[in-house]
Write a structure and sequence with these properties.
Length: about 375
């Protein structure tokens, strides 16, 4: 059988593959990127399922509009206007099957084979995978402590046919890093001089346990701004509910057409249920609980790293989200360490899949949201013994 170049050039998800190994019950796994299941509001969702079915009956099971359930889009518009000072209406929003789908749709709509996509280095591997299906040329730009490197960004913007810049401004996956206010302003200045779409993918922004919320880079200001959101990290990932926000009507119409071709619409049962949940519960209080939980876990990991890691291992200190990124400054390959770590029943994700041009990197992603503080200390101790 002859397959398309598109699929042959797209890597299967490294993480999904290694999770098969790391999911064994006796492994302390920092490899996943899953929200902690104790954060899912199961009882409230059960109530919402019952209520939504009673109130709306067959509508939960019928075909529905591509753009998504209006009350939910209204809820999102109100919230982003209130919290982030945006000026959006439900018409500026399209509900997607997770924000992951939005990434694939954006590439489909904007990128011809060979066109440029600027992406953080390291970057979210699900985005690398989704974009690769459109056969782009990637221009990776180094992500530093305070955001993307400006000189590299300026150079990348000079490349031919650059269509979009993909950023995760808050508690980035995989590094846990957050763009500073200053860097946000500088990126805005630079990008506003170019005809390019700026994507801000923000599934973690609400999970801040330190510092103050910062304004988006381009959302609400830049004509070609796209902001992505998701209910995966705050309510449930299994419902697969995300959204695109853009005031660029033409772009949104094209995304809608691409979505029609892909799946007609996002699961409407999930849209009714999540809307009912949001409308009838104290969501902020729920998110506070997740934040408390993740802060405890992040603190436990950072304290263990401080205690056990040798001086040549540096690591980020996230202000929110789910990840810490460690760098082995002696050049040791993270893949080698991964094999040794598995012998000691501890897992993490070697940095390689987060680069568009990996070469035996010395970086690694550690997720803290799925282990108790005791397991975290034990796992970090075992890792330190390998370093
Ligand atoms: C930065 C980033 N974007 C998008 C996604 C996909 O999330 P969703 O469940 O909304 O598709 C993830 C999931 O881990 C992510 O880390």
């Amino acid at each position: 059988m002859q397959y398309s170049d598109r699929i042959l050039n797209t890597p299967s998800s490294f993480i999904r593959n290694i999770l098969k190994v790391t999911d064994a019950s006796d492994v302390i796994s920092f490899a996943g990127g899953l929200p902690n299941p104790i954060s899912f509001p199961l009882d409230a969702i059960q109530t919402s399922i019952d209520r939504a079915m009673k109130e709306h009956g067959a509508k939960l099971f019928q075909y529905s509009s591509t753009q998504g359930y209006l009350p939910l889009r209204q809820y999102i518009a109100d919230k982003y206007n209130r919290k982030h000072g945006l000026d959006i209406s439900p018409d500026d929003i399209l509900l997607t099957t997770g924000s992951q789908q939005a990434l694939e749709l954006l590439a489909k709509v904007l990128v011809n084979k060979g066109d440029g996509i600027i992406i953080e280095k390291p970057g979210y591997l699900g985005a690398i995978q989704a974009f690769t299906l459109s056969e782009p040329t990637f221009y990776p730009v180094t992500l530093e402590e305070d955001g993307i490197n400006l000189e590299e960004l300026e150079k990348a913007l000079q490349q031919p046919n650059v269509k979009m810049i993909y950023t995760v401004p808050n508690f980035q996956n995989p590094t846990g890093l957050t763009y500073s206010l200053e860097k946000r302003k500088q990126v805005y200045e630079l990008v506003s001089r170019h005809d390019v779409v700026l994507i801000e993918d923000d599934p973690y922004g609400e999970l801040r346990f330190e510092g103050e919320d910062l304004p988006y880079i381009g959302a609400g200001k830049l004509e070609n701004s796209v902001l992505l959101g998701s209910f995966s990290k705050t309510v449930t990932p299994g419902m697969r509910l995300g959204f695109v926000i853009t005031k660029n009507k033409e772009l949104l119409t094209h995304i809608e057409t691409a979505k029609q071709a892909t799946d007609l619409h996002t699961n409407i049962f999930a849209q009714y249920v999540i809307y009912d949940y949001l409308a009838n519960n104290d969501f902020d209080k729920h998110v506070e609980k997740i934040i408390d939980l993740y802060k405890t876990q992040s603190d436990a990991m950072l304290q263990a790293m401080e205690k056990y890691f040798p001086a040549h291992v540096s690591y980020t200190k996230p202000q929110g989200g789910m990840f810490i990124w460690a760098t082995l400054n002696n050049g040791q390959s993270a893949l080698d360490v991964f094999q040794k770590a598995m012998d000691k029943n501890v897992a993490f994700v070697p940095g390689d899949p987060f680069y568009t041009d990996p070469k035996g990197v010395s970086t690694m992603r550690l997720n803290y949201t799925n282990s108790t503080p005791e397991m975290i200390e034990e796992g970090i101790k075992r890792l330190a013994s390998i370093f």
